[in-house]
Specification:
Elements: H1 8-19, H2 24-31, H3 35-43, H4 53-72, H5 86-102, H6 107-117, E1 123-125, H7 126-133, H8 137-149, E2 154-157, E3 163-166, H9 169-181, H10 184-197, H11 202-232, E4 234-238, E5 244-248
Antiparallel strand pairs: 1-3, 2-3, 4-5
Helix pairs in contact: 1-2, 1-4, 2-3, 3-5, 5-6, 6-8, 7-8, 9-11, 10-11
Amino acid sequence: MPGGRLTQAERQQIATGLADGLAYAEIARGLDRPTSTITREVMRNGGPTNYRADLAHRATQQRTHRRRHATQQGSKALPQPYGRDAEAVRDYQETLTTVYMTSGLPKMMARVLGCLYTTDTGSLTASELAGRLQVSPASISKAITFLESQDLVRRERDERRRERYVVDDDLWYQAMLRSARANDQFIETARQGVGVLGHGTPAATRLENAARFLDFVSEALIRAAEQGREVLYTRTETTPDSTATPRTEGA
């Protein structure tokens, strides 16, 4: 599998493929590149509707120049615990950020979430996030406000009274419940429409079917989240014979 940076010609092929409505995987096969490379390239340069090969190539050159300049100034990747490869961690963080962006998160929000999830503590201050991501505190504040509204991060105060932004297991549960209940307003409004449009009419039947479907899916999702919550509090322990056994906290 070929490595190295994308060339300008390859970026032009990506732009052509997007214009033709090709999927990322199909574009990747044409370039003999991993699908993740194409996805990351497109999402960090405007998305599928705004991607331009010339601008993407120029932006990459500028990022490379900034990294080289930082290295010349003595800036190094943050030291990693557990013997991790710092470059591999940084690359993985970019991949995780791309996945968040593909799922619908704006770029800065995705970068903050990716940064938090790749720390062992699962929490950072605004200044720590700004330093790691090389962005302004205002950008961090805006991203955190959005992520908090989606139940994807939470705030807490440490012993020094500093505000920290945290990701933990329970946030997945809360976010799942929020997602399930996001349909409630549509379900209620759809059923109001049935009375207005008249029971049995095509329009009313369409709305009633949509309401029943979403109601069923939402209830099933909430039940699954409640049942699966135990998974979030199950830790894996290593036994003397090197086999892993689950243990529920408090058991």
